[in-house]
Amino acid sequence: MSVTTGPHRPSRVRVSTVMGRVVIALIPAVAVHTWVFGTGVLVQMALAVGWAYLFEGVMLWARGRALGPFISDHSAALAGVLLALCLPPLAPWYVGATGMLFAIVVAKHLYGGLGQNLFNPAMVGFAVVIIAFPESLTHWVTPRSVDGAVPDMITVLRAIFTGHLPSGMAWDALSQATPLDQIRQGLAAGQTLTEIGQDPMFGGLGSAGWEWIALAYGLGGLYLLKTQTITWHVPGAVVLATVILSLPGWLIDPDQFRSPLQQLMSGALVMAAFFIATDPVTGSATPKGKVVFGIGVALITLAIRAWGGYPDGVAFAVLLMNLCVPLIDAYTRPTIFGHGSARSASSAAKRTERP
Amino acid sequence: MNAAPAPFPGGRTLAHHKAAPLAQPIVPAPRPRALNLPLHGYAGEPEPDLEARLQVQPGQRVVAGELLLAHQDDAHPALHAPLAGVFTGLHRCAAPTDPWAAAQHLQIEVATDAEPVQPPDDAPADLDLTGVSATDVIEALKRCGVVGLGGARFPTAEKVRHGQGAVETLIINGVGCEPYIACDEALMYARPRAIILGARLLARALAARRIVIALEDPVADAHGSLVTRLNDDLQALGPVDVEIDVVQVPERYPQGAERQLIQTLTGQAIPHHQLPQSFGLLVSNVATAASAFDATIHQRPLTHRVVTVTGPAMAQPMNVYAPIGSAVADLIELAGGRPDDNARWVLGGPLSGQPIHNLAASIDKGSLCVLGLPEESSSARQSPLPCINCGFCVSVCPAQLLPQQLFKLAQHGQHTEAQALGMMDCIECGLCAEVCPSHLPLVDAYRHSKDWLRAQQRDERAQQRAKRRFDARQARIEKQQSADQARRQARAERLQSQAAAQSEIEAALARARAKKTGPHSPTESGKTGKTGESGDKGNGGDPAT
Ligand code: SF4
Ligand code: SF4
Fold first, then answer.
1. Is pLDDT above 70 for B524?
2. Contact present, A313 and B381 (Cβ < 8 Å)
3. Is residue A351 part of a domain?
4. How far is A339 from chain B (nearest CA, A)?
């Protein structure tokens, strides 16, 4: 007779299920991304996931952990997918490799592995490559909706594996600055947003191509909400805070301040709202804390976009908020059942005196 | 209270798995060879004054219902022989869910001609309760060893005595919210009138003004609505002095937990360190109410209870009317299970139950359910992963705790810190462990932590008691000493004043002799002596009083 401790009916939703759901929820975004920017993202993804499993396996072995249960939890793969989605589709292979090295080896395993890391691994990886390879990160493919074409597979593979384009092609023809970068440079050059916004790269909702990807992330996010993989707290807080924080400026001076819609639809804010800031391990444990965390991510991102040295600040915003989690958790503990608004026994007794 | 019930926080709606055992009436357990009646109080501590309270000698024949262990000071209920046989003595055997604790058991070799006891019939519709006083009820509860049958085993007489006068509303808990456990529903189908009358008797003992019978009615479609049933019986029993309502609560685990039920019915959230009595409320299980009826009206001691024997490992899930002290293995066999199967045997429900370590162990008055769940093969059963802080446990926790933080603290032995974060508020409902994607044994960790904290409190209390005793002794000694001191001093003073009086007299005499004049000097000196003496007496008498 075997006697094992509880739970007697272990949940069918396992860690791998949770991670798997997040990957499934990313499918629409990956599809739109591929349509908008070409197959580069798929190659980046394959490489990043490959590195993820490699580094994960090596680190588990080095730390003397069981390979089976941990490698099959798919958390490393998820980090790979998320990083790949942040990289320019034609970034050379070593960019992703460096990112994953820092994501899995440093951010995850050196902090104790699954469940122990303080910082979001994918964002640590991304922050490292932003700093290490600023040049590679500026070459974003021009969206299909702007110039009607995306690089073919040959171009993609050559660019990623050799770092060069096939002869006869120039980066300038293939790529352009991201809308966020364009705005930053335009504003710095003294242009108004109306002038900058004339460019077709700003599409219908504020950011051609990107806006559709953002909507696809939102769609995937709804699936995560529906399956109760995440709660509304983080995405709700990020989206609402973005709108509320960017609304007054835009109402006062739309030439200097971006509209809430454009803020949301450009860059990685929606992705962060549903897929990055919702990372359970590095997020707040309490419902209220999740709201605070989401507001913080939105606030710091908008601040970096407005005044910072980088066009998008999501990665740094998430990492900064990761840093604040212990503090947030300590101040946002839920009120224990009966401890909060409970009327005291004596007043309740008085209440029952009433006929 | 009939208004739309306010939901309690957290919780989860679960499949109830109750239809199978309720498909047939309660089955009387066949005659067992022996019964081992566990001896442990409701808090799990050993029974005090065992020798003095034992009413039978080893080797003595006992009849069914005979008193084995006398009731003591309300906290330690009486225990009776469920079936006729021979009392063979005290036996130490393993407790079912705790492999390390050997508990004392009263063992009865059941007579070969002993008839299995049938589940009692329901109460007649025309029973008259007038003339039964509060004292009658409490005495009957004591005499018949009635305890809380919802699992807590708290002596009912004690509970009622504490609640007397303070309780306005008596809540009769028929909310068997945990999946698989169907003993309360079975009883409500079988004995609705006994439950209602028992509730009225308890309300009378408490001087409560209203009764709310709360239930979920999970199998209303298959077996008929319990709410209708109870309401019909309320009609049939006629008008009474207390207001009685039957309230159907939403199916949501752990709706049947005392404080969660109160929250749903009254909107009042009672913290763990306060008692419902302080809020004019008292919750009692339906089986306890029926048992109170049996005790008061039929003087029937509590010797049997309805146990649900169920789960996928049983061929025929059923509710068994089982004598207290029945072996778990016998019950499993009765329901068509095979004790040597590689199943997960659980005492209690799938969420809050505890694994059974020894199937030869026996049930007590608080055993609701014997559950056999199929054990997944070891490869399918994932070893626990680290907590990923997913927060699933936070969303379901009805006590609104942060289970993942409590778990980490408990694991690291930081029980005092865990207590500060509400460890004692955990109601051990088991929901957090059931939703945990890392399959962490959360509740096991909490049980350990709470045991540690309780032991600590006991230690502290023992220390305080020792300190109080020491201080009292010290004070007594000091008082004694100061009294002695005072007495000594008083005597010294008296001697001194006598000496002084003496010398004064002598001095006076000397003066008199010297002057040979007026005779009033001795009177003066007599006065002085007298005053001194009465002062003495006062001083001497004081410390003694
Ligand atoms: S459900 Fe399990 S893994 Fe998730 S936060 Fe709670 S303890 Fe951690
Ligand atoms: S067992 Fe305790 S911590 Fe877990 S959900 Fe229930 S009350 Fe909350």
1. no
2. no
3. no
4. 6
C-beta of B11 in contact with ligand 2 (< 6 A) = no
Query: Are residues A162 and A120 located together in one domain of the fold?
Result: yes
Residues A49 and A32 both lie in one domain: yes
Per the CB < 8 Å rule, is A352 touching B395?
A: no
| pLDDT score of B470 more than 60 | yes
Q: How far is the CA of B400 from the centre of ligand 2 (A)?
A: 8
CA distances, B80 to each of A125, B69, B87, B138, B289 (Å): 70, 7, 11, 17, 19
Residue A327's pLDDT band, with cuts at 50, 70 and 90, is: very high
SS3 content of chain B, % helix, strand, coil (to 5): 40, 15, 40
Beta strands in chain A (DSSP E): 140-141, 175-176
Could you write out the DSSP letters of every residue in B222-286? HH--HHHHHHHHHHHH---SSEEEEEEPP--BTTTSHHHHHHHHHS----TTS-GGGGTEEEEEH
B271 contacts A336? CB cut-off 8 A: yes
Residue of A nearest to B371 (CA): A8
Domain boundary among A148, A176, A204: A176
pLDDT digits (tens, 9 = 90+) for B221-235: 888 899 998 999 888
Residues A318, A277: contact at Cβ < 8 Å? yes
Has residue A249 been placed in a domain? Answer: yes
Task: Measure in Å the smallest separation between the Cα of A26 and chain B Cα atoms.
Answer: 18
A279 and A137 co-located in one domain: no
Q: What is the pLDDT of residues B308-357, one digit of tens each?
A: 999 999 999 999 999 999 999 999 999 998 888 788 899 999 999 988 88
Domain count of chain A? 2
Answer whether B390 contacts ligand 1 (Cβ < 6 A). yes
How far apart CA A332 and CA A351 sit, in angstroms, is 32
Same domain, A166 and A190: no
Residue whose CA lies nearest to ligand 1 atom number 2: B436
Q: Is residue A256 part of a domain?
A: yes
**Shared domain check, A93 and A18:** yes
In a shared domain, residues A32 and A55 = yes
CB of B281 sitting under 6 A from ligand 2: no
Chain A, residues 68-127, CB within 8 A of chain B, namely 69-70, 73, 75, 113-116
- Of the listed ligands, the closest to the CA of A14 is 1
Please determine, for residue B513, whether its predicted confidence score (pLDDT) is greater than 80: no
Residue that terminates a domain, selected from A176, A208, A241: A176
Q: Which ipTM was obtained for this model?
A: 0.86
Of A283, A285, A337, Cβ closest to residue B9: A337
Of the ligands numbered here, which is closest to the C-alpha atom of B12? 2
Residue for token digits 């966020």? Answer: A180
CB-based contacts of B469, cutoff 8 Å, min separation 6: none
Q: What pairs with residue B304 in β-bridges?
A: B323
Query: Is A14 in the B-facing interface, judged by CB distances under 8 Å?
Result: yes
> Which tokens hold the place of B7?
């939901």
Residue A122 has pLDDT above 80, yes or no: yes
Tokens coding A300: 């710091």
Ligand 2: which residue has its CA nearest to atom 8? B397
Residues A54 and A159 in one domain: yes
Q: What residues in A contact B271, CB-CB < 8 Å?
A: 336-339, 342
Domain boundaries, position A242: 184-329
Per-residue pLDDT at A331 exceeds 50: yes
pLDDT of B386-417, one tens digit each?
A: 999 999 999 999 999 999 999 999 999 999 99
- Whether A2 is covered by a domain: the verdict is no
Note whether A88 and A146 are same-domain residues: yes
Q: Of B426, B442, B453, which is best to mutate to test ligand 2, by the most ligand atoms within 8 angstroms of its C-beta?
A: B426
For residue B139, what are its two tokens? 């005495």
Confidence of residue B528 (pLDDT cuts 50, 70, 90): very low
B408 C-beta closer than 6 A to ligand 1:
no
Which atom of ligand 2 approaches the CA of B433 most closely? 4
Segment among A40-44, A193-197, B120-124, B152-156 with least mean pLDDT? A193-197
